[in-house]
Structures are given as C-alpha cells and as structure tokens.
Amino acid sequence: MAEHYDLFVIGAGSGGVRAARIAAGHGAKVGIAEDYRVGGTCVIRGCVPKKLLVYGAHFAEDIEDAAMFGWDIPEKRFVWPTLRDNVLAEVDRLEGLYRQTLQNNKVDLYEARGRLAGGGKVQLSTGETVTVDKILVAVGAWPFMPDIPGIEHAITSNEVFHLPELPKRVAIAGGGYIANEFAGIFNQFGAHVTIVNRSDTILRGYDEQVRDRLLQISMTKGIDFRFNSTFETIEKMDDGRLHLTMKGCDDMEVDQLVFATGRIPKTDDLGCEVAGVSLDDKGAIKVDEYNQTSAKGVFAVGDVTDRIQLTPVAIREGHAFADTQFGDAPRTVDYDFVPNAVFSHPPVAAVGLTESQARERFGNEVKTYTSDFRAMKNVLANRHERSLYKLVVEPVSDKVVGIHMIGPETPEILQAAAIAVKAGLTKADFDATVALHPTMAEELVLMR
Ligand code: NDP
Hints:
alpha/beta, FAD/NAD(P)-binding domain, Enolase-like, domain 1, 3 domains, five-stranded parallel beta sheet, 13 helices, about 25% strand
C-alpha cells in the first residue's frame, strides 16, 4: 500500500522546508522529497556559503587598512582550502539543523527525486509512489548555461564552493548578482577577474548612480569589464587553461570561466505535463496569489514560480501556503518594498523604486536626495572609496518610496531603513529623527 500524505512537498529548500514544518504544526501528515541535500540553494550553494566567502575575502582589505590603525601585520597569506573547508563544514552543520527541524516536526524525509504523476500521486526515484491530498512543488531554479561549443569546461556558482585551488585568472559571464558578488570575492583573493556581459550594463534594475559607483570602484580594484560581448567557443588547452574565443572583445585566456547568466526554474522532468501544471514561456510554474497552479491540489512556491528569486520571499510563500491550506488562515504574500542586496565589494542595497521608476510613475516632480561621502574608516585608512546613499521621495505625499545605497555594511543598514519605507514614512519623518553619531547610517537622516 502506498503511503498517504495530507501534504507532500517536492524540494527541501527554503520554501519547501518552511511549508512542511508549518503544515505539520497545523496537524497535517507531511512528507518531503529531496534528491540532493536538505536546505536548498540558499543554505547549500548560495546565500550562506557565498556570504561566508564574502567575509573571508574582505579580510584582504581589512588587513591592508589595519596598518593605518597601528597594526603591524608583517605577512598576509591566504589559504583557500582552509576557508573552503570551514565554509563547507558550516554548510554541513546547517544542513543537520534543517534535517532536525523536519524530524522534530514529524515530517517524513524521502532522499529521492520526486515527480508529479497526476491523479494525486508523486513518483519517487526510489521506485516508491505516494498518494497525496495536496502537493507543493518547491524545487527552485538552476543556473542557465547557454549552448556554446565547449560550455562543459565552464562552471557555475555551484562549483565555486568546491574548487580544489583558486584560479589566477577568472572570467565571469553575466553582470548580475552572482557575477558581481564572485568578482569581488575572487578579486580580494588575488585573482585577475574579467566580467563579460552581453549588454553595456551591470545590475540591471538597480539605481543607475549606484551601478555606476560599483563599476567605478570595481575597476579601481582591478576588475576588468567587457561589455556588449559574448562567447563563441571555449577551448580547453592541454595544460588546463581555457582559450575563450569572443565576439565583441578580444579573445582571452583564463584558468576558470564561471557562468552567472541567470537561473531558470527547475521544471525539467518534473511531470508538469502529466499533472496538468501550466508553465510560462520561461518554464516557470504559473500560480495565483495563493500559490495554486493550474492543476487542482498542486501548488508551487519559490524560484520555480519565477516571482522574486529571493530566499525570504520563498519562505514567506511557503508559510502563507501552509497557513492557508492547513491552518484555516488564508493569506497572501505582499511583494511591495522587498529589500534586496548585492554582496559585492562594497555591497549594494536597495528597497522600493529607483529614481527612473519613480519618475515614470509620479512624473518629474519626484524628489531625490543623495549623500556622497567617504566612510570615516576609509578616510583614516587612506582608501579612496566613496559611499553613495540616495532617497527617492514621492512629491505629493512626501513618502520615501525608495532607498538605494552602496558602501560598507549597506545591507545591514538598509534592513532597518526598509521598515520605514514599508511603513510609508515621509521624508519629514526621516528629518525628524536625530542622527546617531558617528555612524554611516546617520547620512539617511541628514540629507537635505
Ligand atoms: P541576474 O539575473 O542577476 O543576472 C544575469 C546576468 O546575465 C545579466 O547581466 C544578464 O545580462 C546576463 N544574461 C541573462 N541571460 C543571458 C544570456 N542568455 N546570455 C548571456 N547573458 C545573459 O542572474 P544571476 O545569475 O546573477 O543570479 C540569479 C538570481 O539569483 C538573481 O536574479 C537573484 O534573484 C538571485 N541571487 C540573489 C542574490 C542576492 O540576493 N544577493 C545573490 C545571488 C543570486 P543583462 O541583464 O545585462 O542583459
């Protein structure tokens, strides 16, 4: 007899684990299938290990800057395997906690690939089939790799965490989140980094002034950029080097090529057709505001739905789904004013409308306030890196509808400021708040 569940979740990442845990807490009998490791992209090969590498990379500058603060550190030497193995050990620890959470909530974990089989059934790669009342698809997304001759020689962010040794020269394809974050990491570790993007921009969607500042700082740090350029072929030489034949720029020779050209929903071989689950033209599962797909009893959350590809969003969707379906408390996720950050060197953080989006929506009366300053610590360290903070204000209501920042610790600062934006506070409310001196964040209440 097949095991029967009130809820069966396919994919034990951020959204899936949250939904499973909350539904079980509401009294549902829950099973979950995961074919790789519990925790998903964020914990296993995304946000968490990436952030730890960002911390590790930042020591390069901190050690340099320490000299002006009186510290004599005669020799700095970076040992990649030490950081890599410590980060991987932390990932193991976190995976253990995720497994424990499932166990504590009496969720049955199947270490197998799950596939929709139609008619309230999920087929597992172990050969078992389970019957279910409700199915939640939370299988996430996967790096997109274009069809270029030799693409098998390129890696993605998935593999960076396991590199046996650090490359001396790296090319990174793409100009988005992952490209800029790993460019900063490799650059701080001493590699020569070249970012190659198909367009003439980085971080599409972010405020233009902030993007320009990141580009300028990155170039000062020695990161090269090739815009309007694409890859024709990738050849591996006998000694392991890669020869990149390019269109739009000169050919290159590198030790490693990382593709960071977006992530696509992992709907291949998921049985969507059999189950009557409709996809959009990008292969993402189409859902309504309650995460309901086109098939009765089948729901989806997180990156597989291609709404906002961020962990906290997937977690909220999973939680709202479980409360709606099993907790008798229907609710949806509010996608307005979702704060976001790029953990580049220095990091970028933003919430709400950019200046150009605000002008499109409210006209040219939109007001902006900027603070362009050098952090106190950078001044003493003789580091000529300037931060830029920008407020975008709606003209009639005086509400702050966007904050855009680049500089040290901006994601930490923005999280708190995002509460004010979400709450609809005005520029006058910002002005009425006394500065906390001396901080970088005080600039947010000092712009006139
Ligand atoms: P992004 O969408 O951020 O950037 C993709 C980049 O690749 C863009 O520069 C784009 O160029 C380029 N590109 C897109 N398609 C192609 C193509 N077919 N051929 C060549 N170039 C292409 O993707 P990432 O891979 O950096 O990250 C994926 C997602 O993961 C992000 O959207 C984000 O949601 C999430 N993420 C979030 C992080 C965070 O919150 N800090 C960190 C890492 C990932 P252009 O736009 O110029 O045309």
